[in-house]
Amino acid sequence: MTRRSVEVREFLMRLEWAAAKLERDVAFMEVCGTHTVNAFRCGLHSLMPPNVTLLSGPGCPVCVTAQGDVDQMIHLAGRPGVTLCTYGDMLRVTGSHSSLELERTRGADIRVIYSAMDAVKLAADEPRREVVLAAVGFETTAPATAIAVLEAHRRGLKNFSALVTHKLVLPAMRALLDGVPVKLDGFLCPGHVSVIIGAEVYRPIVEKYGKPCVIVGFEDLQLAAGLCRLVELALDGTPRLENLYPQAVSPRGNARALEVLERVFEPVEARWRGLAAIPASGLGLRAKWSQYDAARKFGLEAVDAPEPPGCRCGEVITGQCTPHDCTLFGTACTPVRPIGPCMVSSEGTCQAWFKYKRARTAKHEYVKT
Amino acid sequence: MDRPTRMAHWKRVLLAHGGGGQLTDDLVGGVVLPRLGNSALNELLDSGIATAGDEQLALTIDSYVVQPLEFPGGDIGKLAVCGTINDLAVCGAAPLGLAMSLILQEGLERSVLERLMDSAAATAKEAGVAVITGDTKVVGHGQGDGVYITTAGLGRLRSGLRLHPDQVRPGDAILINGPIADHGLAVMLAREMPQVTSVLKSDVAPLNKMIQGLLDRVAGIRFMRDATRGGLAGVAADLASRTGLHVVLDEAQILVRPGTRHAAEMLGLDPLDVANEGKVVIVVEKEKAPLALETLREYIHGVDSRLVGWIEDRPDGICELRTTIGGRRVLQKPYGEQLPRIC
C-alpha cells in the first residue's frame, strides 16, 4: 500500500468516526465537475458512511449552460461563413432541435479547440471566415477568453468574436442557498476556480449562511480530507472556511487573472439551467469590447428555450434530485444518446452516475461483493 | 421534429462512431452485421478464422488514419504494421504475410512517404514478417488526409489452441504487458497541442514474438486482446459482458507513467479509456500466471508486465475497478470519441 493510500484511509477512518458520532444525516455539495467525476473515479462514494451524502452542485460548465444559449451556439454554427470554435464537451449537448455534433455532419464548420487562443489563431489564418468562440465555463476559462479578446484586438482582427456565456460560481452558491429547497450542511469548494477567485470569497457563505466551506484539490487524498473536515465541522457545529489546497489557492486569488477579467468583462445577469436567471452571475463583454460580442455582431436575441421534456438536469445540478430519480436516466437518456447536458459532459453528474454506478435497475447500489 | 436525442436510429455517421466504444458497436451491430454477418464475422474477434484443409488460417484487416502522420514513438507506417501483426498474434496466429494499401493525397511530400515506408519496413523486419502484396491510390486535395494505410494480415493458427472468451473461467488471472495509455495521449498531445513539448511516447510495437514465446512456454492461456481503441477499460468491460462473469481490475497494479497521467488529467481523460498500440491483455489460468509473467518479462515489450486483475465466479457480466484507496466502481466501455473537457 502506498503512503498516500494510507493517508487516505486515515481520513476515511476519521470521517467514519465523526459521522457515527453525528447521529444524523448530513449532505454536502461539491460545486465542481472535476470533483464530481474524481469522487466517483476513486470510489469515494462507495466508502462513505450511510449518513453522509455528497451531492453534485452547479459546477459542470456544460451542464449549467441554459438551453437557449445552446440553441444560439447551434444556430450560429449553421450560418454560412461562420466557423464555430468550441471546447470538446459542448459538442454533443442537444439544443431544442439539433446539436453541434449533428450540425457538423451536415457540413457546419465546427472546430474543437483546447484553448481560446486557438480561435484567435484560426481567425488570423482564415480572414475570410467569421470565427466565433463559444466561450463557456466558469472563472477558470473566462480569463482565457479575456486574453483571446485582447489578443484579437491587438492583432486588429475583424473576423473574431466570442459568444460569451461565462458564469460565476459564487452567485450560484448563493442562489442555491436562497432559493432551492435542498438542505445542505456545507460545500466542498472547487480547486481550479478558487485558484482564480481566492479563498476569502467564500467567507460570506460561512458567515451569512452558516455553511462550512472547504476548498480542496482533485486527488483522492484531497477529496477524502475535504469530506472528512466537513463532517468534523458539522460535528463541531462551527461553520468555518478551510483551505486544504493552499499550494494552489491563495486568500485573494490570482491578481493577474482577476485584473484581466475586470478589464474585459462586467457582471451581467446570466441564465442558468436549473436556477433560471440570476442577476450579476455571469460575465459579459464591456462596451469597449462590444465589437467582439458575437451576439451583437450577428444580431442574436436572448431566448428562453424550454429544457427537453422530462429532463431533470436542472434539479440534478442543484442537488434536488439524483439521476436515478429522473425517469429518462439510463433508459431514454444514456451517454450514447444523451438528452440532457449532464449525460453529455464527462463532468456531468448523470454521466458519472451512469458510468461509475450501475444503471437504474440496481437503484442506489454499488458493486458489492 | 427531428430531435437528435430521441432518434431511435442515427441518420448520419458521427465522428464518434469511429471511437471504438459503444457507438462503434452500434454501427457494426446495427448496420454491418445484419447484412454481412456470418459465423466467423459475428464473433467480432481481432481476426476471422478460415479453414483450409487441415489448417486454420487467421485473416485480419485494419485501416490507419492517424494524425499527425509522425508522432513521438512512431508513425503511421509503423502503426500499420504493428496493429495488424498484433491482431493476428492475439488470436494465437503466427503471421505469414501482410498486404498493404496506400491512399495518398496529391501533394504529399516524397520524403515523408519515404520515411513512412522505411519505418514500416524496419518494423516488419523486427517482427519477421514481409509485406507480400499491396496497392496504391492517389486522391485529390481535400479527399484524404495525407496518407491512409490499410493493412491486411494472414496468419497460421496453432493447432489445438482456442483463444476465446468462452475459455475464460472463474479464478483466471488478467495480465497486461506494461504501462497503459501512452499511445493515445502521445498522439493526442502531438495533434492538439503541437507547441507543448512532452516526454510522452507512443508504445506502438509488434508483439508477435513475445506472444509466440508465451504460447510456446505457457499452457492455460485462455484469451488475449490488444488494448487499442477503448483502452484497457474497453477490453475488460467487453470481457465481462462476453463471458457473463465478474471481472475485477486492481487500479493499484495498473501502471501509468507519471507524464501520461499528467496529460490525461490535463485533458480530463481516464487513462483506462485511452488507446494503446503495444499492449496485450492476457487471461491465463491462475496457477500459470507466475510463469506467464516471468516469460513476458524476458521480452523488451514485456519487462513491465503485471497481474492487474482476475475473474470472479459471479454471473453478472460486470467489470469492477478496485480503486487505489479501496473504493469500488463499475468500469464500462467508453462511449465514442474522447472529448477533452472544458476546464
Distance between the termini of chain B: 33 Å
Strand content of chain A: 15-25%
- What structural category characterises the helix and strand content of chain A? alpha/beta
- The CATH topology annotation of the largest domain in chain A reads as Rossmann fold
Rg of chain B, Cα atoms, Å: 20 Å
The average pLDDT score of chain A comes to 91
Q: Architecture of the largest domain in chain B, according to CATH?
A: Alpha-Beta Complex
**What is the CATH fold-level name of the largest domain in chain B?**
Phosphoribosyl-aminoimidazole Synthetase, Chain A, domain 2
Describe the structure.
The complex is a heterodimer of chains A (369) and B (343). The longest helix of chain A is centred in the first third of the chain and has 20 residues, at 3-22. In chain A, 39% of the residues lie in helices and 16% in strands. Chain A contains 16 helices and eleven strands. Chain A has a five-stranded parallel sheet. A four-stranded parallel sheet of chain A has the order 4-3-5-6, with helices on both faces. Chain A has a two-stranded antiparallel sheet with strand order 10-11. Chain A is an alpha/beta fold and 369 residues long. Chain B has helices spanning 22-36, 76-89, 110-127, 182-192, 208-217, 231-243, 258-267, 289-296; strands spanning 48-52, 55-64, 70-71, 74-75, 93-105, 131-139, 147-157, 173-176, 221-226, 246-250, 280-284, 306-312, 319-322, 328-330. In chain B, strands 9-11-8-12-10-13-14 form a seven-stranded mixed sheet. A five-stranded mixed sheet of chain B has the order 1-2-7-5-6, covered by helices on one side. The longest helix of chain B is centred in the middle third of the chain and has 18 residues, at 110-127. Chains A and B meet through helix 1, helix 2 and helix 5 of A and helix 1, strand 13 and strand 14 of B.
